Write the C-alpha cells for this entry.
Amino acid sequence: MPTGEALAVLVGAGDGEPERLLRISRPIDGQVDVLEWSGADWTSPAQQRREFATELLAELERAADQRRRMTESIYRLRLWLEGQG
C-alpha cells in the first residue's frame, strides 16, 4: 500500500458484521487502497485490498442507510472517494 495521505473511518457493527476500521488512500485512477481491521479480532493483521472507489462508497452508503455509526460523515467520505476532499 502506498504511503501517503489516508482517511481512517470506524464503521460500527451491524447486520451481522463486526465493527471495522478502514484506512482509505486517496483515489488514483478511480481506485483506492484499503487496509481493514475487524472488531472480531483487533489483534489480527489488517487485510489489504485495492478496489474501485465507487464500490467502496456504495458499501459505506449502505452502512449509513442502516444507521451504523461512522466516525466520518457520508458527505466527507463521498468527497474523499471522489477525489475532492
The two ends are 20 Å apart (CA to CA). The chain has two helices and four strands. The chain has one domain: 6-81.
